[in-house]
Design a protein that fits this description.
The complex is a heterodimer.
Chain A: E1 5-15, E2 23-34, E3 41-45, H1 52-59, E4 67-72, E5 75-76, H2 82-91, E6 92-95, H3 99-102, H4 110-119, H5 126-139, H6 144-147, H7 157-170, E7 175-179, H8 187-204, E8 207-212, H9 215-221, E9 224-229, E10 232-238, H10 239-244, H11 249-257, H12 275-278, E11 307-310, E12 313-315
Parallel strand pairs in A: 3-8, 3-9, 6-7, 7-8
Antiparallel strand pairs in A: 1-2, 1-4, 4-5, 9-10, 10-12, 11-12
Chain B: H1 11-21, E1 27-40, E2 43-56, E3 60-64, H2 71-78, E4 86-95, E5 98-99, H3 105-114, E6 116-119, H4 133-143, H5 150-163, H6 180-192, E7 198-202, H7 210-227, E8 230-235, H8 238-244, E9 247-252, E10 255-261, H9 262-267, H10 272-279, H11 318-322, E11 328-331, E12 334-336
Parallel strand pairs in B: 3-8, 3-9, 6-7, 7-8
Antiparallel strand pairs in B: 1-2, 1-4, 4-5, 9-10, 10-12, 11-12
The chains are: A alpha/beta, B alpha/beta.
C-alpha cells in the first residue's frame, strides 16, 4: 500500500542567505509515514522554537524543505499534477490556532463551509449542501440553526474553533493537521473540542497530527507523542510512557514543569545544567546539553542518535547509549497502532 | 433566613462572620459588594454582580473562572481602571482601611503601582517598545514623586533586576531585545519597583511555554516573600492555582460561587460548579477521564433568576430557580453560595 503522507529525511534551515548570516535549523533530518488505516493520532510537542509549526507547514507543502522531500501517495509534493494537488488538498486538512484569522469577517459562517463543498464538488444540490453542513455542525456539538447565517464575531472562540473542526471533517479527509487548535480557548472548553476531534477522527477514519505545547492534552488524545527540541526528535513513542516516565532530560523538564491540579504534587524545581553542560556548544554536540543537568563529556562532541529504549520508544540521549540505536528510517517504526478499533460500535 | 430573599447578602454579614470564626486576619484589602456593569445598547451586562472578599497581608488569593466570569473586571476595578461603557455601580474597596472609591483621581493614581501593582495578561506587550527597561522604571518613580540621587538609581535598578532574575545590564535593553520570559520579568520588576502592598497578576504566564511559566511563577512568589506583599492571581488554569495560591475563589457569571482554602477546594469542592470544574480537569494519570461541563455560561445581559448556575447544575432544586444563594460561611473557612448546604451557625 502506498503511504498517504511521508516525510523523508526532511530538514528546514532558515537564514544563511545574503543578509542573514545566522542560520536556524528549524527541522533536522525528520522522517515519518502517516496512514489512516487504522486512523492514528500523533502529537507533536515542544516549546516555541522547537520546529513543530515548521513541521506542519512542510507536511502541508506550504514550506519547501531545504533537504529531503514530502511525498503524497508516493509522489513528491513539488511534482504533483493539478489533479493530484486537488486531491491532496482534499485528503489533508488543517486546523489553525486562531480561528479568527481564518474567517473573513464580512462573510457569514456558512461561507467557510460551502467553499470546500463547492471546491471539491461534494454537494449535489443546494439542499444536499445544507444537509452536509447540518450534519457536520451537529457532529461537533453545534446547533446548526444557531450557527448558520451568523457572522464570525457573533460566535465565541470555542464555537468558531468547532466550526473549523466541522469544516475540516466536511470534505472527508484522510488526515487532519491541527496546529494548537485549542490554545486560544478556555480550559473548560478545550476538553470538549478535543473530545470531538478525537472521536470524530476515529469515527470517520481520519488520522490526526496534533501539534501543541500542552503535554496533558497531547497525552489525553494521542496514541503516540513526538517531543521536538530545536528541530530534532528528543523522545518519541507510545503516549503513556513518554508522559508518565519520560526518559530524555528535556521531556522530564517539560513534564516536571506542568502545574498539576493537585496540591500534593509539588512543582519540582528545575535542576541546573551540569558543569560540563554549561560550556556546551549546541551547534556541535547535543542541542540540549547547555540546559541539561546530566550532560557528560560525550554530549559535547556529537548530537546523540535515537536510542531505542523499548519496543515503542526512542530517546536521543547518551544516558541510554546501552540501548540499540534506531535503524535508519522513519520515526513511526516504533509507534503503536491504536489499541482498540474505536470505529466498532461500543459494547 | 427569610424565604423571600432574592438579593445577595451584602458583604457585611459574612465578613463579620468570617472574622468571628477564623483566626484574626491581618486584612490588607477588603472588597465589599462590588458591582461592575458594562452598559450596552441592550442593557447593562452585569460583569461583576455583588462580589465580596478580603485579602490578608502576604496571602496569595486565586480567582478562577471561564472567560466572561468577571475575574479580570475585578482586577481592573481594584485599580479603578474600568473604562466606559463599564462602570463600578456600587461597592467599597478598602485598602488598609481606606475606601479607594472615595479617593480623588490624583490620589488614586498614586495608589496604582505605589500600593497596588498589576502584572497584566500579555503584559510583556505593554512595555514601551522605544524605551529602555531602565527608563521605564525611572519613569514610574518620577511619576510617583520619588526623587533618587543619580548615584543611587543605578544601584536600585541593579537590585530590582537581580530580584526578578535578570542581569543588571538587561536594564539597558529595549523590550524587543529580550525574550518573552525576560520581558515578563521586566514587567514584574516595574510592578515591584515601588514596593506595593498588593500585586494583581492577571494570567501572568498565559502566553509562555511551561518551562518559562514555572520560572516566572517562582520569581513572582520569591519577590512576594521578599516584599511581604499579598497577591491576587487571576486565571483559568487550575493546575497553576493548585501550585501557587493559599485561598481560591471560584467565579461564575460575575459572582463568587465558592471561596475556600485552596486545598479544601481541590480535596472536597462544595459548590456543584467547583465540583464539575475539578472533575473536568485532564490528568497525566488516566486517559479519557475528562468531561466538559454541559451547557454554556449564561448571558450577562439576561442572567437567569435565582442561582446563576442553576440551568447547568446537576443538583438543582426548585428553590435555586427563584432564590439567589448568598455567599455564606458553610463550614470552617469555607464560603459557598449554594442552597445545598446549611449555613454554619
Amino acid at each position: 500500500m502506498t503511504t498517504l503522507l511521508e516525510a523523508r529525511r526532511v530538514s528546514k534551515i532558515f537564514g544563511g542567505g545574503l543578509f542573514e548570516k545566522e542560520t536556524t535549523v528549524a527541522l533536522d533530518d525528520f522522517s515519518i509515514r502517516i496512514d489512516n488505516d487504522p486512523p492514528v493520532i500523533t502529537a507533536v510537542v515542544g516549546e516555541s522554537g522547537s520546529g513543530k509549526t515548521t513541521l506542519a507547514r512542510v507536511l502541508l507543502g506550504e514550506t519547501e524543505p531545504t533537504q529531503g522531500e514530502v511525498r503524497y501517495l508516493g509522489k513528491d509534493l513539488r511534482s504533483l499534477s493539478r489533479d493530484e494537488r486537488q486531491s491532496f488538498r482534499r485528503d489533508v486538512q488543517v486546523i489553525f490556532q486562531d480561528p479568527y484569522e481564518v474567517y473573513n469577517p464580512f462573510y457569514r459562517i456558512d461561507h467557510v463551509l460551502t467553499t470546500p463543498l463547492t471546491k471539491f464538488g461534494l454537494a449535489k444540490s443546494r439542499g444536499h449542501a445544507r444537509e452536509l453542513m447540518t450534519e457536520a455542525l451537529q457532529a461537533v456539538g453545534l446547533r446548526p440553526e444557531e450557527t448558520l447565517g451568523r457572522y464570525p464575531h457573533q460566535l465565541s472562540g470555542g464555537q468558531r474553533q468547532r466550526v473549523m473542526v466541522a469544516r475540516a471533517l466536511l470534505v472527508r479527509p484522510r488526515l487532519i493537521i491541527a496546529d494548537e487548535p485549542v490554545s486560544m480557548v478556555d480550559a473548560s472548553l478545550r476538553a470538549t473540542i478535543l473530545d470531538s476531534l478525537q472521536s470524530l477522527t476515529r469515527e470517520f477514519g481520519v488520522s490526526l497530527i496534533y501539534i501543541t505545547h500542552d503535554l496533558i492534552t497531547a497525552f489525553q488524545i494521542s496514541d503516540n507523542i513526538i517531543v521536538l527540541y530545536r528541530g530534532s526528535v528528543a523522545e518519541a513513542g507510545r503516549a503513556e510512557p513518554v508522559v508518565q516516565q519520560p526518559e530524555h532530560p528535556y521531556s522530564r523538564l517539560l513534564v516536571g514543569s506542568i502545574p498539576q491540579p493537585d496540591p500534593d504534587r509539588v512543582w519540582s524545581a528545575e535542576q541546573p545544567a551540569s558543569a560540563v553542560g554549561r560550556g556546551a556548544n549546541p551547534a556541535v554536540g547535543c542541542k540540549f546539553a547547555p540546559r541539561c543537568p546530566f550532560a557528560m563529556e560525550m554530549c559535547l562532541e556529537n548530537h546523540p542518535p535515537l536510542f531505542q529504549t523499548d519496543d515503542h520508544r526512542v530517546a536521543a540521549c547518551y544516558l541510554y547509549r546501552d540501548a540499540p540505536t534506531l535503524p535508519e528510517g522513519p520515526i513511526d517504526q516504533v509507534f503503536v497502532k491504536p489499541a482498540i478499533d474505536l470505529r466498532a460500535p461500543a459494547d | 433566613m427569610t424565604d423571600a430573599e432574592t438579593r445577595p447578602a451584602t458583604s457585611a454579614p459574612w465578613n463579620s462572620r468570617e472574622s468571628a470564626t477564623s483566626a484574626p486576619r491581618d486584612t490588607v484589602l477588603d472588597v465589599r459588594d462590588l458591582h461592575v456593569y458594562y452598559h450596552t445598547s441592550r442593557g447593562p451586562a452585569k460583569a461583576v454582580n455583588g462580589v465580596s472578599f478580603t485579602l490578608a497581608r502576604g496571602e496569595v488569593l486565586g480567582l478562577v473562572g471561564e472567560s466572561g466570569s468577571g475575574k479580570s473586571t475585578i482586577a481592573l476595578s481594584l485599580l479603578r481602571l474600568i473604562k466606559p461603557p463599564g462602570r463600578i455601580e456600587r461597592g467599597q474597596l478598602f485598602l488598609d482601611g481606606r475606601d479607594l472609591m472615595t479617593l480623588s483621581e490624583e490620589a488614586m493614581r498614586r495608589v496604582r503601582l505605589g500600593e497596588i501593582a498589576m502584572v497584566a495578561q500579555g503584559a510583556m506587550n505593554s512595555l514601551n517598545p522605544v524605551m529602555r527597561i531602565r527608563d521605564q522604571i525611572i519613569d514610574a518613580w518620577v511619576d510617583h514623586g520619588i526623587s533618587t540621587h543619580r548615584s543611587e538609581i543605578d544601584d536600585r535598578i541593579a537590585e530590582l533586576m537581580r530580584r526578578v532574575g535578570l542581569r543588571p545590564e538587561d536594564a539597558h535593553s529595549f523590550p524587543h531585545e529580550l525574550s518573552g520570559g525576560m520581558k515578563q520579568r521586566a514587567v514584574i520588576a516595574i510592578a515591584i519597583s515601588l514596593r506595593p502592598k498588593v500585586i494583581i497578576a492577571d494570567e501572568p504566564t498565559s502566553a509562555l511555554d511551561v518551562v518559562v511559566q514555572r520560572q516566572i511563577m517562582e520569581t513572582l512568589s520569591r519577590v512576594k516573600e521578599e516584599l511581604g506583599a499579598a497577591v491576587i492571581l487571576i486565571g483559568h488554569d487550575m493546575g497553576l492555582m493548585a501550585q501557587s495560591v493559599d485561598r481560591l475563589g471560584v467565579m461564575y457569571a460575575g459572582e463568587l460561587a465558592e471561596l475556600s482554602p485552596m486545598r479544601d477546594i481541590f480535596k472536597d469542592p462544595m459548590h456543584p460548579y467547583s465540583r464539575l470544574l475539578i472533575a473536568s480537569l485532564p490528568s497525566l494519570e488516566r486517559k479519557g477521564s475528562r468531561r466538559g461541563i454541559p451547557g454554556l455560561p449564561p448571558s450577562l445581559l439576561d442572567p437567569p433568576a435565582g442561582c446563576p448556575f442553576h440551568p447547568r447544575c446537576p443538583s438543582v432544586m426548585d428553590r435555586c430557580r427563584v432564590q439567589r444563594p448568598p455567599l455564606e460561611l458553610k463550614r470552617e473557612d469555607r464560603l459557598v453560595a449554594c442552597h445545598l448546604f446549611e449555613e454554619r451557625p
